[in-house]
């Protein structure tokens, strides 16, 4: 395809004070994370030189995507800095690295903030480990530090139960990042039942949620997977999708066009699919019981 998609074709949501396109380009391929085989991950590492990452980010912006969600690896921060210095304007939602990749999270958050992300969220796998170990409350200090650094605050998880817990316990966040497949329980298995549980939880929580693993790391057919996600996440939610251009040079543009078309079709038929609050089957499972200042209670 040769036509350029205008940014108005991709609706935006609010993450903190920033407007973020509902399709976000995901950075796992840039960090050599294929969720497939070691050989596939190595191929990603070889392909994604600094220049190639910059080229993909440029394509994303040209096709209406205004945000990248990527790990705060040193090479990612260095590459983003180079991209911005050359005139790029894409916004960055930073994911903290795994706990074993830094000595002290507080110090590392200060380093991340130097690169001006619009938001920082806590790594999903590490969140899940803290929950299992009974130490998830240790996150509160880190969340406060992120807010004090002037960034929107988020928590990532692969387990919908943890998403429910954090919301019900009133963690101070602007958004969540939730996988549609439960890697905490099933690792690299991509089960339909997991996806149904995830979207039910996403619908029940009013805060913005960025859905990840929408394509099951390349295992799902894109159009049907995008359609499923858009029909089951809220209008205030977005999705982050890793896009790998080595074998499909037009993948970024094709994904952006597909999402824009599906959203337009969904909006044209919204009256037949929404309740009075405008959410597709969302928030109907929330019961207000006055707890935590009227915060909806998840059952």
Account of the protein in words:
This protein has 11 helices and 10 strands. It is an alpha/beta fold.
Topology at a glance:
Blueprint: E1 12-15, E2 18-21, E3 23-26, H1 38-47, H2 50-62, E4 67-71, H3 74-85, E5 91-95, H4 105-113, E6 119-122, H5 124-133, H6 139-148, E7 152-157, H7 160-168, E8 175-179, H8 183-186, H9 192-204, E9 209-212, H10 222-232, E10 238-242, H11 251-268
Parallel strand pairs: 3-4, 3-10, 4-5, 5-6, 6-7, 7-8, 8-9, 9-10
Antiparallel strand pairs: 1-2
- The low-pLDDT segments are 272-297
What does the overall shape look like?
globular
Proportion of beta-strand residues: 15-25%
Content-based structural category = alpha/beta
Figure out the total of helices: 11
Query: For the largest beta sheet, what order do the strands appear in spatially?
Result: 3-4-5-6-7-8-9-10
* pLDDT averaged residue by residue: 85
Radius of gyration using CA atoms only: 18 Å
Distance between the termini: 47 Å
Question: How many runs of DSSP E, i.e. beta strands?
Answer: 10
Order of helical and strand elements: EEEHHEHEHEHHEHEHHEHEH
Biggest sheet statistics: 8 strands, parallel, barrel
Share of residues in helices: 25-40%
Can you tag this structure with a few keywords?
299 residues, disordered C terminus, alpha/beta
Short account of what is shown:
With 299 residues, the protein is of the alpha/beta class. The C terminus is likely disordered.
């Amino acid at each position: 395809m040769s036509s350029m998609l205008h940014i108005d074709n991709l609706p935006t949501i609010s993450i903190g004070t920033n407007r973020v396109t509902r399709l976000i380009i995901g950075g796992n391929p840039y960090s050599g994370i294929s969720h497939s085989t070691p050989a596939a991950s190595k191929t990603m590492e070889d392909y994604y030189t600094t220049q190639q990452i910059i080229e993909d980010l440029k394509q994303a912006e040209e096709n209406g995507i205004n945000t990248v969600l990527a790990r705060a690896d040193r090479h990612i921060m260095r590459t983003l800095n180079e991209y911005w210095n050359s005139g790029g304007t894409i916004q960055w939602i930073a994911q903290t690295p795994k706990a074993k990749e830094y000595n002290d999270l507080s110090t590392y958050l200060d380093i991340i903030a130097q690169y001006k992300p619009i938001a920082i969220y806590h790594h999903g796998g590490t969140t899940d480990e803290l929950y299992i170990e009974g130490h998830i409350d240790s996150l509160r200090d880190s969340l406060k530090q992120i807010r004090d650094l002037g960034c929107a605050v988020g928590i990532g998880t692969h387990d919908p139960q943890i998403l429910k817990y954090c919301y019900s316990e009133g963690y101070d966040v602007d958004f969540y990042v939730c996988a549609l497949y439960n890697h905490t329980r099933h690792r690299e298995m991509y089960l339909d039942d997991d996806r149904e549980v995830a979207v039910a939880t996403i619908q029940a929580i009013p805060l913005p949620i960025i859905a990840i693993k929408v394509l099951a790391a390349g295992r799902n057919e894109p159009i049907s997977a995008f359609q499923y996600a858009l029909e089951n996440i809220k209008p205030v939610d977005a999705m982050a999708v890793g896009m790998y251009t080595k074998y499909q040079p037009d993948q970024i543009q094709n994904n952006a066009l597909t999402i824009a078309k599906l959203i337009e079709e969904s909006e044209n038929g919204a009256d037949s699919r929404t309740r009075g609050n405008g959410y597709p089957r969302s928030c109907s499972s929330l019961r207000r019981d006055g707890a935590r200042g009227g915060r909806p209670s998840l059952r």
